[in-house]
Amino acid sequence: MKTIKNLALLMGLCAAVLLAVGCDKSESPTTPPNDLPPVTQKNELAGTKWKLVGIVDAETGKLTGLEPKDCKECYTLTFDEDICTGVTSTNFFMGVYTANSETSSFEMTTEGTEIGEVYDGYLYVDILRSVQFFSLSTNELRLYYNDGKEYLSYEPYSITKNELAGTKWECVLERFDVAITLSIDPVADLVSVSKSPKEVGVNDEYHQFRDGNLYFLRNNTLFLKKSDGGICFLPDFSFKITRLSEDEMKLEYLGIIPYDPLYINSYLFNRIIE
Length: 274
Known about the structure:
Helices cover 11% and strands 36% of the residues. It is built from 2 helices and 17 strands. The strands form 2 sheets. Strands 1, 2, 3, 4, 5, 6, 7, 8 and 9 form a 9-stranded antiparallel sheet that branches. Residues 1-11 and 13-32 have low confidence and may be disordered.
């Protein structure tokens, strides 16, 4: 009997030791440490383009199209990482957006002119500014507004690569004895500016390009990209591109030009073949 008691005592001590080892969190943590970096959320909208199908009543499913319906680029949205560009009934616009896949929340601020909007252009802009939520699938993007009672329904729209990507252009200003070179990134649609010689002083104030400027290219318009990563929207520091031929293009300044004959309204660039 004494032997049985000793054996039971020994087994009890072994169990206690095993339990203590199993509870030692320093050896085998059961919860993740708090100092791990947060997981970066993937932006599934980045790099996509969409064409509006119409407004849908979320309860009844009734679809209402917007006019004009025969416009190829009207009511399209193109998403970059945090910038959204699009076309209304007649105008181009750009904005900053946030889309949270976990909460489905969506918010967009738009900048651009609303002059000359026709048909449902004004309605479309007002709705975009009031979008609260979104849902995304392979074949449809929904932007919900009015507390989720209605949504804008979009279908995928193929993105055409910009024909200027990977090219380089030069404009020689004989009056100022300076050459301006524009280099277009082959992937990111960013346009960098360089000058030869680099201007210092009064000459640089008479035209809008600055050495080292970086522009964002979208729909044949250049928008100045600020040092903090933001974009200068229309019309300040923006340029409209008009292709005159394969090797020649004109850039027209869209901002306000002071009453000074030295200021330049447009630039003629020739393609540099390398």
